[in-house]
Amino acid sequence: MATKKSSGSTVNVELVSQVGQSLSAASVPALNAYELGKLVCLKTEAREPAAIKLEYKRLIEALANIGLISPIEGLSAFALFGRSNTPPAEVACCIDPFAYVSHLSAMEHHGLTDRFPQILYLTTPPAIEWRNQAEIKMRKELGDIYETYDVSGLPRLTRPKFSTIGRTSVHVQERSHMGAFRIVGVNALRVATIGRVFLDMLREPKLCGGMQHVLDIYEKEAKRYLRLIVDEVERHGKPIDKVRAGYVLAEVCKLDSPALEGWKIWAQRGGSRKLDPDAEYASTYSDVWKLSINVPSLTVADEDIDEF
Description:
about 300 residues; alpha+beta; 2 domains; 4-stranded mixed beta sheet; 3-stranded antiparallel beta sheet; 14 strands
């Protein structure tokens, strides 16, 4: 085993070389600390927990000294050499394996908006679900060495707390995301599907440019993506999502689908029954969809709309 001194520590040169080659061949721009710990545990010949942890510490120092990795400020993660110009969205998806680009950022990716968000919008699972997925991922990837890894005190897969990536501010929304995204390219970039983007527009319009911007996009693009929108709302929408989507598709976009008739069963008066969830109640009211139509631009002349 080849070793040499670095900053007073003995470095396993062979391990540094092996890990360095793996990082050089990686397509991703960044790694979280767990990914580096996994590489060490898989490649080291050390078997004692204390020795494995020491190998990890020395490896991080050696890789940083030769410039192959550099710590990302505020995160337990590292940028890889030569990839400093990688878009923040790709970096985020590398560091959080369960996050995906959503809301206005996903709208821009899909060409649905002409706005250029100054904030990166991400969605990631709630804390408990995130931890459960992380545990499953670690056990699957580490296999027989999971217990050794765990007792060695190497970094576990933990959810990052994003606020900025470089100069880009990050907004993180928590939501379960079964079937919500697709993988784009080879750099682990995950982006909300078209259907999920249209569903999120009605759920959190303030994260999508505001309700008027959302309605403008629905009027322009909903016909083109109607099947995807209806499938997503049918499978993953809550009752209030179906009511809002039904109203917008039928009354604003003048579109029709067999599913819309079924969504009417969810129409009922209630404290949360507003078209725009972030705006005040308005007296204009849809009798069919049982919604306060609290968006000023919408006409009150439709036959289905009354006054409270």
